[in-house]
Structures are given as structure tokens and as C-alpha cells.
Amino acid sequence: QELEDMGVVERVVDPSDGRAKLVRFTALGRRGLLHGLGVLGTMEKQLARTIGAGRMKTLHGLLTEVVALLEARASSATDP
User: Fold this and answer.
1) Going by C-beta distance under 8 Å and a sequence separation of 6 or more, which residues neighbour residue 51?
2) What percent of the chain has pLDDT over 70?
3) CA atoms in the 13 A half-sphere facing the CB of 13
4) How far apart, in whole angstroms, are the C-alpha atoms of residue 53 and residue 15?
5) Is pLDDT above 90 for 18?
6) CB 10 within 8 A of CB 22
7) CA dist list (Å): 2 to 5, 9, 19, 26, 27
8) Cβ 4 vs Cβ 22: under 8 Å
9) What residues does 13 pair with on adjacent strands?
10) What is the overall mean pLDDT for the chain?
């Protein structure tokens, strides 16, 4: 609701199921997302220059594994 109040997302009726709502980015939300991705890309390039491409690749791999583990843990916690 907070993101909707900020104008970042909007809820619209699902055309395939009138009982359901779809949540999608507004133009403002899309601009913010693209800006954030640009900032992230710049930060990644700066970090790679600082620690080196090889270490950056290793870091990326480790963080990807951590995210997968956290997602698996969250999924198993919500399974019946």
C-alpha cells in the first residue's frame, strides 16, 4: 500500500480474473527502477576496479549462493 501511495506501483483489475488485482509499476516506478539499476551498475564497476575482476566474479557467485539459500529457507518456512 505504501508503494501505491507513493505512486511507484498501481493495482489494476486482472483482465483474466475480475476478482484478482495485478500490481504493476507506474511510469514513476519504472523510472525509479531504471535509475536504481544504473546506480547499482556504476557501483559494481567501481567495486570491480577496486578489488579486481576475479574477486568481483567470486563475490557475485557467493552472493548468488547466499540469496538462493535464503530463498530456500524462506520457502521451506512457509510450506505446510
Assistant:
1) 59
2) 98
3) 5
4) 46
5) no
6) no
7) 5, 9, 22, 14, 16
8) no
9) 21
10) 95
- Would the pLDDT of 78 be above 90? no
Instruction: Give the list of residues 6+ apart from residue 26 with CB closer than 8 angstroms, or none.
Output: 7, 8, 9, 10
Please tell me the distance from the alpha carbon of residue 39 to that of residue 37, in angstroms, as a whole number: 5
pLDDT in tens, 40-52: 999 999 999 999 9
CA 36 to each of CA 21, 29, 42: distance values in angstroms, whole numbers, following the listed order: 26, 10, 10
Residue 46: what residue type?
Answer: Q
- Residue type, position 45, single letter: K
CB 10: neighbour CB atoms within 10 A? Answer: 16
